Amino acid sequence: MIKLSDFFQQLKTGSDWTLFLDRDGVINRRLVDDYVKCWDDFEFLPHVLETLNRFDKIFKHIFVVTNQQGIGKGLMTTAALDEIHRNMIREISTAGGRIDQVFYCPDLSNSNSINRKPNIGMGLKAKKMFPDIKFKEAVMIGDSLSDMQFGRRLGMKTVLIPDTPVIVNKYPKVIDFSYPDMHEFAKNLPLSVH
After folding, report:
1. What is the CATH number of the domain that holds 76?
2. Can you tell me the distance from the alpha carbon of 172 to that of 113, in angstroms, rounded to the nearest whole number?
3. Measured by CB atoms within 10 angstroms of the end CB, which terminus of the chain is less buried, N or C?
């Protein structure tokens, strides 16, 4: 893991940092052995809206990158997922935060899709849409090993919100920081670098 003070110094010296966020378990409550299939299933985690408001002042771009194989399994539709994301973005915006774009992969875990984390396809899509992204000036926040591998493969700093402490101990090479939730990480960041 890198030193938090070193990361702060890097963050302060540039105004073009990008934030990538996993969704389930980071922004909203993960449903164990199930999928968020409609807006009624979606529940923001505590302090997420105020945290995204804070991130708005720190990061130039903020993206969500999320595996959504519930579509590939036929348990939900693309239209239902789009509605969830529209409502999520609206609530975040109303609270003073923002999400610039949501990227999702509907493919099954056994598909070996380049777009499914830990593969880097969603990051490459973001780069194509926003060519000014520099992955070495980007942060990936997620709750799983695949999130950390996705970030590391693209050269990002990684922040784990662990769903299990085993990940932190077993895979330290792909994890730069670990916090109990996104809010705790945000509290340690300088308020504005722009």
Report:
1. 3.40.50.1000
2. 25
3. C
The number of distinct structural domains making up the chain is 1
Length of the chain (residues): 194
24 is catalytic: yes
Report the pLDDT value the prediction gives residue 172, as an integer from 0 to 100: 73
Q: From the candidates 16, 22, 132, 181, which is the catalytic residue?
A: 22
The reply to whether 155 falls in a domain is: yes
Give the DSSP letter of residue 27: T
Residue 61 near residue 19, CB atoms below 8 Å = yes
Give me the helix-helix angle, 48-56 and 78-94, nearest 10°: 70
Within 8 A by CB and 6+ apart from 117, the residues are 22, 65, 67, 105, 142, 146, 147, 149, 150
pLDDT, one tens digit per residue, over 30-52 is 998 899 999 999 999 999 999 99
Of these residues, 24, 107, 176, 181, which one is catalytic? 24
Residue 144 lies in a domain: yes
Q: Is residue 47 part of a domain?
A: yes
Told to judge if 100 belongs to the known catalytic residues of this protein, a careful annotator would answer no
